[in-house]
Amino acid sequence: MNRRKPDWTPEGAGAEFASSVVSPQESQSSPYQRKKGRVWDLDTLEEGIKAGTLTHISKAITLVESNSEKHFAAAQELLTRLLPAAGKSIRIGITGVPGVGKSSFIELFGMHLIEQGKKVAVLAIDPSSTLSRGSILGDKTRMEKLSTHEMSFIRPSPSSGVLGGVARKTRESIVICEAAGFDVILIETVGVGQSETTVRSMVDFFLLMQITGAGDELQGIKKGIMELADLIVVNKADGDNIQPAQAAAREYNNALHYIRHATQNWDTKAITCSSRTGDGIPQIWEIISEFTQQTTANGIFKQRRLAQTAQWFEELLSEAVLSSFYRSSKVIDRLPELKQRVKEGKIPVAYAVSILLEDLAL
Ligand code: GDP
What we know:
single chain, alpha/beta, Helix Hairpins, about 50% helix, disordered N terminus
């Protein structure tokens, strides 16, 4: 990068002063400062991502995952450049309790997709990893083949921040992976808190993974979660467990007659599969392909994406407005006193709120 000598220098300033000044024109396309003096070179990152280079994809995801305010501008600039090349994948959410077989399934399913010529990215949303040190997702040792295959990219869950923040990072990682040419993006999550609803709000197709248990199959599953699913997969249908798994799938299919389906004009159904033998894996991809064809033809695929983006925008906006409200010095000054007066019954609640809002001219 060309540095220019400034028009003036402080008295006694050495060469290092001049070298730290960058003309405004240059600064627009200049690399963004990174920790420890390194820089984010956005041109190189953009080119690398578009060429599908894994190290650049990883670096870019690290950039969007950063909580530092100075990285925010660089991340948003990069995403703005990548957006025109994004949006062309099929985004699939996969949920199920720990131990149901998600990692084993993703290994086989991912390899099946690669055999069909697809490039596969796996991202995870694991809110538990932000609460405890350990993560209940991402036993990537079960994705041995997939994780080393050149047609795949696997990224564990961002490990800091609340669910909303983690979700933002995942949505932005989707843009990066799509711009890098991944055809299928798998987003894995566990049923912790709101994580299933959050993943549903960023995917085209949602797969709910189950296993057979003792007694009534439906007891352990919340109706609300079935209503999010486009497909229920009863995993571990192998050996002695084939028949119980088929019986469980029948039970789910019966129950599905009585609930609202996640996608208009699409009949959610339950099938069995084994992530050990691979039985059922090709059928699952066939079902997803049929879903994509059908929802693309009737416009629902596009409609859902537009609605998801609009909803995301509104969510982020509400969060930002709320947080800037509480950070404003006027609010910080007046809030304790108004709270106290409300508590003591000296002023009506709605009036106290209106005073705060008027102060901010909101
Ligand atoms: P996750 O926690 O949902 O990611 O589940 P894992 O993929 O780690 O699997 C949990 C355990 O179930 C492991 O011991 C797997 O070997 C086993 N497992 C996963 N899928 C199957 C399957 O289809 N059949 C059988 N028999 N075992 C499975």
